[in-house]
TrEMBL record:
It comes from the Eukaryota. The chain crosses the membrane at residues 34-52, 83-106. It comes from Kuraishia capsulata CBS 1993. Its main location: membrane. This is Altered inheritance of mitochondria protein 11. Belongs to the AIM11 family.
Length: 152
C-alpha cells in the first residue's frame, strides 16, 4: 500500500492536538484575519472585472456596412449611472481590501485592539494589556475621573 505525501508536514504544519490552547486560539484568530483579507481581495477582483466589462460593453464597434463617423444613440444618464456605480464598487472594494490587509498585518481583530495599538503608537500611556476587559464603563472610567477631580 502506497502512503500519500503529507504536504502539511512539508510546509512545516504541525499536529494541532500538540499545540497549546493559546497557540490554537492565536492561529484561529490569524486565519480569520487572513480569510477576511482574501475575501475582500476576491471582491475587489470581481468588481474590477464587472467594471472592465461595463467599459468594454459601451464601446462602439461598427460593422462592415456601418459608418464609423456617425456615433450611435446613447443615454447620458445611463452612462453616468454606470460610471458612478462602477467607480463606487471599485472604491469600496479596494478600500476594504486595504483596511483588512492593514488590520491583518498589525494583528488587530476589533475596535478595542485598534484603539489600544493606536494609543501606544501615538505615545500614549504604555499599557501592557488591553484595558476594560470585563469591566463596566464606570469602573473603567473611575481612575480618569479621579485624576480629573484631583486637578481641580
Amino acid at each position: 500500500m502506497v502512503s500519500g505525501i503529507d504536504f502539511g508536514r512539508l510546509i512545516g504544519k504541525t499536529d494541532s492536538s500538540a499545540l497549546s490552547p493559546e497557540v490554537r486560539k492565536y492561529n484561529e484568530r490569524r486565519f480569520r484575519q487572513m480569510s477576511l483579507f482574501y475575501g475582500c481581495a476576491l471582491a475587489t477582483f470581481i468588481c474590477s472585472k464587472v467594471a472592465y466589462r461595463g467599459v468594454i460593453s459601451r464601446r462602439y464597434l461598427p460593422n462592415f456596412y456601418q459608418h464609423n463617423h456617425v456615433p450611435p444613440s446613447f443615454s447620458f444618464y445611463r452612462d453616468a449611472l454606470s460610471a458612478v456605480t462602477h467607480g463606487s464598487l471599485l472604491a469600496v472594494s479596494t478600500f476594504s481590501m486595504i483596511i483588512t490587509g492593514s488590520l491583518w498585518y498589525f494583528d488587530i481583530s476589533n475596535a478595542r485592539e485598534f484603539s489600544f495599538k493606536l494609543r501606544n503608537l501615538l505615545g500614549g500611556e504604555q499599557i501592557l494589556e488591553i484595558p476594560n476587559e470585563g469591566k463596566g464603563f464606570k469602573e473603567a472610567m473611575s481612575p480618569i475621573m479621579n485624576a480629573l477631580e484631583a486637578k481641580k
